[in-house]
Design brief:
It is built from 11 helices and 17 strands. With about 350 residues, the protein is of the alpha/beta class. The strands form 4 sheets. Strands 3, 4, 5, 8, 9, 16 and 17 form a 7-stranded mixed β-sheet that branches. Strands 12-11-10-13-14-15 form a 6-stranded parallel β-sheet, with helices on both faces. Strands 1-2 form a two-stranded antiparallel sheet. It is elongated. The two termini are about 15 Å apart. The protein binds zinc ion. The site of zinc ion has 6 residues, from helix 3.
Length: about 350
């Protein structure tokens, strides 16, 4: 079958062996698969990812020296079943799944495995117990984006938004930032202020329901805090709270993931703010702890999502609380994947490109 393979730090379209479903696994036809920023990163920096995962004590089984077929944001169609399966869905059923695969030797990540192909291949194997059927009528490419939107759902669920007395600032409106905005609005949180240097991304942030969109070259995204009556210093915060005032708390979602952003946010954040780090920065970065101390800033790092958050995100998309359509700025066949990776490096033109392996 045809697949786009990461081979020697490049993407090549080639033929690979058909995957065969092992026990508990299902053979599926890949219908659509989103290209993720992590894939762009893994194309060039896979050894660094492997090294960092090892440092963090995570199992990262991908060997960057060997072939890998990326693709973890997929929607697929059931073709056939391996041994010891319940055959829960009849062939032809469209399904999505968290990108984990239970294999005889342990859990592999679909899209970052040397042994099993990800979604940039015509066919894959998936684990039957992890399959979720796509609700009737939901377009396939929208269902495929359950995964990236689930990242936003988890970030929002992890933030201290509980009592509603909060304001959310989203820094960076690429696919991660947009997923955060979508999840905030789906859960009824606000106001949501969003900032990005790209006009196209600011427009998308508006489409996803941001209440205010800021171009950082024109105004500081942090001007919102004083407008909401949040004092600039911890001392003033304490005086006013002691006087019986109920003040809003600033929740900032860092969705950029490049060195220097975290420091800048700690500098500009209002006292008691929580910074939720969703953007994936793979480099060593510098922060000034004293800034955090003098404002009692809380840093919260997040990764991925739970199976429940994934399932709820699918329902959010299917039931119209999240519209997956606007984020899709391009669709390609397997022969267009390498170019799509290039194009995604230019954020002015694209947010999410979906691969359809069956497309001619
Ligand atoms: Zn992803």
């Amino acid at each position: 079958m045809r697949a786009v393979i990461r081979r020697g730090g490049r993407l090549v379209l080639d033929s690979i062996a058909e995957p065969e479903p092992d026990k508990g696994q299902v053979l599926v036809k890949t219908l659509a698969c989103g290209i993720c920023g992590s894939d762009l990163h893994a194309l060039h920096h896979a050894p660094r990812m492997a090294e960092m995962a090892k440092k963090a004590g995570n199992v990262f089984t991908m060997d960057p020296a060997r072939d890998v077929v990326f693709g973890h944001e997929f929607c697929a169609e059931v073709l056939d079943y391996g041994p010891q399966t319940e055959r829960r869905f009849k062939p032809g059923t469209r399904v999505v799944s968290v990108p984990n695969l239970i294999s005889p030797t342990g859990i592999e990540t679909v899209g970052y495995s040397n042994r099993y192909p990800g979604g940039y291949a015509e066919r894959m194997v998936l684990s039957e117990p992890l399959l979720l059927p796509v609700p009737n009528g939901l377009p396939t490419d929208h269902a495929a984006l359950t995964e990236p939107f689930a990242v936003g759902a988890h970030a929002v669920a992890s933030a201290s938004l509980g009592d509603g007395d909060t304001a959310a600032l989203v820094i960076g409106c690429g696919p991660v930032g947009l997923a955060v905005i979508a999840a905030l609005k789906a859960r009824g949180y606000g106001p949501v202020i969003a900032a990005d240097y790209s006009a196209m991304r600011r427009k998308l942030a508006e489409t996803y329901g941001a209440d205010e969109v800021v171009d950082p070259t024109i105004a500081s995204p942090h001007a919102c805090w004083s407008r909401m009556g949040i004092p600039a210093s911890l001392r003033d915060w304490r005086i006013r709270v002691a006087g019986g005032e109920r003040l809003k708390r600033g929740i900032i979602f860092e969705c950029v993931g490049v060195p220097g952003v975290l420091h800048g946010l700690m500098e500009a954040a209002p006292p008691t703010a929580q910074i939720v780090v969703v953007g994936v920065c793979m480099e060593t970065d510098k922060i000034e702890p004293y800034l955090g101390i003098t404002k009692e800033i809380e840093l919260r790092f997040v990764l991925g999502y739970s199976r429940e958050e994934f399932a709820r995100t699918l329902a959010d998309i299917a039931e119209g609380r999240i519209d997956a359509a606007p984020i899709i700025t391009g669709t390609v066949g397997l022969d267009g994947v390498a170019q799509a990776f290039e194009d995604l490096g230019r954020p002015e033109r694209h947010a999410k490109i979906v691969v359809e392996p069956g497309r001619a």
